[in-house]
Amino acid sequence: MQPLLPLLWAVAVLSVRVSSAPGCGPCDAAQCAPLPADGCPAGSMPDACGCCTVCAAAGGELCGGRRAAARRCGAGLECVKGDDEKKSKMGICVCKSNYEVCGSDGVTYRNGCALKSAGLAAEAQGKEPVTLLNKGRCASAPIIVTAPGQVYNVSGSQVYLSCEAVGVPTPVLTWKKVSLMKGQGMELLPGDRDNLAIQTRGGPEKHEVTGWVLISPLTSEEAGSYECHASNSKGEASAVGQIHLVESIQDVNSQLVSCGLMVFLDVYNFLFD
């Protein structure tokens, strides 16, 4: 048995050296600083010396370093070092995933690391933990981000109204002409009008859709109000624009000047009232 004792002693010393970073002294847990009362955004872990429990570095925080002062990133993060940082051994914690995720709280997070931080914060407050519901944005009802506006033009011209909506899943856009005739309600477009077309495309952003009502040539029958309607499995939204038929180009210019003046006055009143 005696020949084995030196070998066992050597293994024990080697294990201590491997588990602790260079520069670590004897461990005194009583000297360890307490963790924040509201928890650590990126979770906690043993320090480089394996003695105290410390907050892990969160996204955007410094990581790396030398010997006992070395700091490690939390779960799901990696320490990224540029050419300049390699000399100092320091880097920045960056999330390994770069896609949006949906949490069980119905909030869309920019990545899995942000969701994990929200979950840890919820647990620290005694709330229900936030877990991953699905990759990508959370489902949401449509929102009209750009409503159809006011169009003024003369008979025989080419005009259009546009509308943009966003939602998850991507909304479906439809157009209706609002009828002022009693009992007629709304007319689903394009109907049987030869001079009217509907166009739709995805974008410009993800889960966004853009649609147009195109009229050429414009006649008195096309003047009026048009409703842009967006719908998906979570809900619907709508907005109304108008096409005005005027007598001459001068009337078009005067209407544009009038609209511009109204916008200016609205902004002026908002700033100085």
From TrEMBL:
Report domain Kazal-like positions. Answer: 87-140
CDD domains reported in the protein's UniProt record: KAZAL_FS
Q: What is its main location?
A: secreted
* Domain Ig-like per the UniProt entry, residue ranges: 142-244
Residues making up the signal peptide according to the UniProt record: 1-20
Which Gene3D superfamilies would you find in this protein's record? 3.30.60.30, 4.10.40.20, Immunoglobulins
Q: Which GO terms describe its molecular function?
A: insulin-like growth factor binding
Q: Does the keyword Disulfide bond apply?
A: yes
Protein's name according to its UniProt entry: Insulin-like growth factor binding protein 7
Recorded source organism is Salarias fasciatus
Gene designation per UniProt: igfbp7
